[in-house]
């Protein structure tokens, strides 16, 4: 069975993308996996720390147990998404313990998010996690730059953010970061934003974000590892397709599948799960990522 690292590299070489679906509520996992299997699309099943602190993903272990129950490893692997060193509430997180537990539980890949740290501190924290994870055979994603949206306070106007490039990943810093950490793939900031997670805002429609493709090209030229786009919901398809051609090998999707589940679950769990399935299928079609053969077995014609 190919490792997640191999699969990500295959996606990069094939100029296709691996969608990663965040599981905010444990029951959502089954329809996501069924959709991936039915569409013959490879994807990552993911949970972030905020999804058991802000939503109802319960815990690392609960997600791992559910994955064991419903997994289909022809089309899926299990990934631990954002574990911040400093979280969206500006609180220090025991990130080493969480990431270490995930590796012990058998997560295929993990993500340390040191994006709220100074560059040297982010490098040091990430390097320590890479060393720990690689000893156990797990891959590591990290973040450089600031993909906003999870913070409690109001965001500046999006057009102002995009025009200024505030928080965008610096290509030269990305080169240094990758060289000094040995990270397997890198989440970058080029215009996307996360969906809101604070009460009263988490059900609002996301801003239609754009991507600075020229800036992405500079980052891709600076580093030679797969790049990751967070905040994938709400970005026009033309930008997504361009980003895939320029080095994005994984795209994270959370809001698009979470909100339909939340809207319908009080009426009917069956309807809520059907909505997750239908939305996942629709997203796969929109992304045009059914080239799983190129990811899973690139030597096949």
How would you describe what is shown here?
The protein contains 13 helices and 8 strands. The chain is of the alpha/beta class and 301 residues long. Helix 11 (255-264) packs antiparallel against helix 12. The radius of gyration is 18 Å and the shape is globular. The two termini are 19 Å apart.
Keywords:
alpha/beta; TIM Barrel; 45% helix
Present the secondary structure layout:
Layout (H helix, E strand, L loop, with lengths): L3 H11 L3 E5 L6 H10 L4 E5 L1 H5 L6 H11 L5 E9 L10 H11 L3 E5 L5 H17 L3 E6 L13 H7 L6 H11 L3 E4 L24 H10 L4 E3 L7 H9 L2 E6 L1 H10 L4 H19 L4 H5 L5
Parallel strand pairs: 1-2, 1-8, 2-3, 3-4, 4-5, 5-6, 6-7, 7-8
Helix pairs in contact: 2-12, 6-8, 8-9, 11-12
Instruction: Name the assembly state.
Output: single chain
Total helices: the number is 13
**CATH C-level:** Alpha Beta
- Tell me the distance between the termini: 19 Å
Low-confidence runs of at least 5 consecutive residues: none
Assigned CATH superfamily: Aldolase class I
Structural class: alpha/beta
The domain count comes to: 1
What is the approximate shape?
globular
CATH architectural name? Alpha-Beta Barrel
Major sheet characteristics: 8 strands, parallel, barrel
Q: The CATH topology is what?
A: TIM Barrel
How many DSSP E strands?
A: 8
Helix content: 40-55%
SSE ordering: HEHEHHEHEHEHHEHEHEHHH
Give a quick summary of the entry.
With 301 residues, the chain is α/β, with parallel strands linked by helices.
